[in-house]
Amino acid sequence: MFKLLITRMHTPRWVVFIIDMMIVTFSIAASYLLRFNFDWSEILKQNLALAIAIILPVRVLSFIIFRTYAGLVRYTSTNDAMRILLTVISGSIVAFFGSLFVNLYTNLDFQIPLSIAILDCIIATTIMIISRFLVKLLYLEHHVQDPAVENVIIYGANESALTTKKTLDRDAGSNYKVVAFIDSDQRLRGKSIDAVKIYPPEMLDEIVKKYDVTNLIFAGNTPSKSKRKDIIDWCLSNNVRVMSTPTVNNWINGELSFKQIKNIRIEDLLERDPIHLEEDKIRKDILNKTVLVTGAAGSIGSEIVRQLTRFNPHKIIVFDQAESPLYDLELELKEKLNFDNFEIVIGSICDKTRLTWTFETFRPSIVYHAAAYKHVPMMENNPSQAVANNVRGTKFLADFSVKYGVKKFVMISTDKAVNPTNVMGCSKRICEIYTQSLNSMFPTQFITTRFGNVLGSNGSVIPRFKAQIEKGGPVTVTHPEITRFFMTIPEACQLVLQAGTLGNGGEIFVFDMGKSVKIIDLAKKMIKLSGLTLGRDIQIHYTGLRPGEKLYEEVLNDKEKTLPTNHSQIMVAKVREYDFPKVSEQVNELIAMTETKDNMKIVAMMKRIVPEFKSENSIYEELDTLNTITDNQAEIKSEIKSKNESNKYENAMRKNQIVYSNKKVFPIGKKFSLIH
Hints:
It contains 24 helices and 25 strands. The chain has a 9-stranded mixed beta sheet, sandwiched between helices. The protein is elongated and about 120 Å long. The longest helix has 30 residues, at 114-143. The protein is of the alpha/beta class.
């Protein structure tokens, strides 16, 4: 019955109020007994009954004003104790001076002794506070025996950690008990916070087993991201759920709410240590400049806009054709970032008329070009649109930048442009080639930035996995061996801004993407972070590689090398130089082909411009086979002629077939086609 009362029932406020009045009545009597050494005759002479009659009404009034009875006793905090202390002190002061008033203005010869007032104050405060904390301890003691209660470790031993513990203690729905703090500070070892001991990180395994810990909470920004990743990996391997608290700046009204303690996200697990930017250089580049951002409604473009607001540009031209995301970004800039120096322009980079108006009206000094079609399978099925949007749109934008004297043009490319195996990657490589070739002809500095997948971007694997997990699965992975490089959106955009300050034009900057991540491992970790068990709660299905998709992404072409820059996470690629007239002619021819909608011809032309473009898992693989056979034919003829070995040539011509890649083809000299 007592356990039920302590753990399940909320004591009515009127009961708490009555108990408090009983405590203060006892406190008055105890004060007189202590002051007069338990001499009842002396106590009676001092008129104890009158003292009670004066002090009790004052206590009633002060308790009502300060509402000392209103809080839940089982969740008493130091704030509650401080309120009780102030309430009792103020009541004692009023009662003492009230007795002076009675003595001066009535016929009663009575005054509460100062010593009584002080003793009463001390006794009442002590009993009221101790009684509340005793109830709290009893509640926690019985509460922890409930099988639903989960033991928690808090990583960190600071103010945030203490606040986190208090938040868990006072929240009725949390069902968590903090059993240990973890901190790497040697000075804190063996000490305690709020009666909970602090342990070193190397004892984590021992503590988890000893207390049967089911949860670990990171409080504040400790430890470093690399160390945090190791701890999270260990927790996931040992079925310990991982959560974190927001930074102090994100607390609600300066207080941490239990609802703000969230599960660790996969983005947190893959995130690296903060990037150190040369902000002075970036500010010098951006300050008081008009900056045009294309694709500004997308995940990368919108983050570039957010980052730019920190450097006081004269105006940001927010350019995109997606109406609703632009509206959301507009509200964010005004309401959250308090930034008004921007202009929303709805338009397409393929619309010359709209681009003309934009450049003539705003005269941008810097262009960040993030607009592009990026979805690999879709572009594989729609090559004409990949060229029309990515290549033609980039050409228009680059040409207008030259025409209107843009100082710097920064293009956002992709690691899929390296040895491309799909139409999308090749289209971005052609964009790189075109802008690079422009750089040698005109004053505008054309700079390319190249990086891999960004976490949480539109169409990326992370949001897809999240949606599949929320639905109960299955989680679909294309191949068990597929890997990708990942970077957070803010991290990528910060490096884009930094790369813009490093370039003089013509460079392709490559970002340090860290280690490649197996997508299957990513899926498994996301399932664990969601509190589910693979094979029991949710399944993983393999769907096979999609058109144009390859197992491993690269950062640099095999023929390219990198050189370090002043920034440790940015390298510059030493790439081939291209002749602008030839590139321009080829690009114009390719763009003209989009009108025919003949995908085979379009892709064949793309392969002419980018010889390293070899299709994978695609219908366009046959173009590579035919090109290779043609190349082999030319090599054979050249070799035979140079050695003047006419007999060998004739023998080769007499052969009925040439075998290449285990596929049979028609004889040399005839029209080539595949025989399946």
